[in-house]
From TrEMBL:
<feature type="domain" description="LpxI N-terminal">
    <location>
        <begin position="3"/>
        <end position="118"/>
    </location>
</feature>
<dbReference type="InterPro" id="IPR010415">
    <property type="entry name" value="LpxI_C"/>
</dbReference>
<dbReference type="Pfam" id="PF17930">
    <property type="entry name" value="LpxI_N"/>
</dbReference>
<feature type="domain" description="LpxI C-terminal">
    <location>
        <begin position="122"/>
        <end position="253"/>
    </location>
</feature>
<dbReference type="InterPro" id="IPR053174">
    <property type="entry name" value="LpxI"/>
</dbReference>
<dbReference type="InterPro" id="IPR043167">
    <property type="entry name" value="LpxI_C_sf"/>
</dbReference>
<dbReference type="InterPro" id="IPR041255">
    <property type="entry name" value="LpxI_N"/>
</dbReference>
<dbReference type="Pfam" id="PF06230">
    <property type="entry name" value="LpxI_C"/>
</dbReference>
<protein>
    <submittedName>
        <fullName>LpxI family protein</fullName>
    </submittedName>
</protein>
Length: 263
């Protein structure tokens, strides 16, 4: 919705491809078409008919059951590549989708290009800044995400006082934070959630994202703060995020690569 609103606000022509079962209800008020996830041919045909020269991916789409997927002819031709990529991880699947659109002459751009105000900037968002002990946890968590990049694990990790509490996997950030909240004896108190891209990640369509729900769950887990890599992460509703963080006594921080480099 934010991408559509940004395009409308600046008078930019746009057309929405609404994936069946995965689209925000608000998108049905925007110019667009409904397509199943396997209808690659239909999607490409519509984009060309609408004279689109660029495409931006946004939202959460669950990995489909490939054995039950109904595809058009282009989707069926693409399916073997996607299944082969799936064995290497979600990042490889996304790369196949980008390559497919680019082979049709479309430019794939990132959300941050379409809506620049969503990109995390360096420094603190809100009234609270991290302390040196928080930076130590931040560096360790950031290093873990970097080190696990070749395995296409997750984009997040939680570290508290040097102890690794959780590493994001297929469950996603929210469920990972819920796991931290369920740890006994307040073991996660004062920890830091870090989200950053994995090495080699397709940044145009899979940037790390945090929002209000991230802050609520981080507070429930007793964390001291949330940190994302500036310039390569998105913050949804940054004013609400800052307000919630202030109310919960959490910091939200955009770190640079230099700040988390191993010492």
């Amino acid at each position: 919705m934010r991408i559509v609103s940004a395009c409308a606000a600046r008078g930019a022509d746009h057309h929405v491809i609404r994936l069946t079962g995965a689209s925000d209800p608000g998108l049905y008020n925007s110019p667009g078409d409904d397509c199943a996830i396997g209808e690659a041919g239909k999607i490409i045909r519509i984009l060309k008919q609408e004279n689109c020269d660029a495409a931006v991916f946004a939202g959460i789409v669950q990995r489909p059951d490939f054995s039950a997927l109904k595809a058009d002819w282009r989707g069926a031709a693409l399916l073997p590549k996607i299944i082969a990529a799936a064995a290497r991880g979600d990042g490889a699947i996304l790369s196949v989708l980008v390559d497919t659109l680019e082979s049709e002459g479309l430019i794939v751009i990132g959300v941050e290009e379409a809506v620049q105000e969503l990109t995390a900037q360096p420094g603190a968002f809100g009234a609270i800044s991290p302390q040196e002990t928080n930076f130590a946890d931040m560096r360790k968590a950031a290093d873990i995400v970097h080190a696990l990049g070749p395995y296409d694990v997750g984009q997040g990790a939680v570290v508290a006082n040097g102890l690794v509490l959780a590493i994001e996997a297929a469950e996603g950030t929210d469920e990972m934070l819920d796991r931290c909240a369920s740890l006994p004896n307040g073991i996660g108190r004062g920890g830091v959630l870090v989200k950053r891209p994995k090495p080699g990640q397709e940044l145009r369509i899979d940037l790390p994202v945090i929002g209000a729900e991230t802050i609520r769950r981080a507070a429930k887990a007793g964390l001291a703060g949330v940190a994302v890599e500036a310039g390569v992460a998105l913050i949804i509703d940054v004013d609400e995020v800052a307000t919630l963080a202030n109310e919960a006594g959490l910091f939200v921080y955009g770190f640079t690569a230099q700040e988390v480099a191993p010492r």
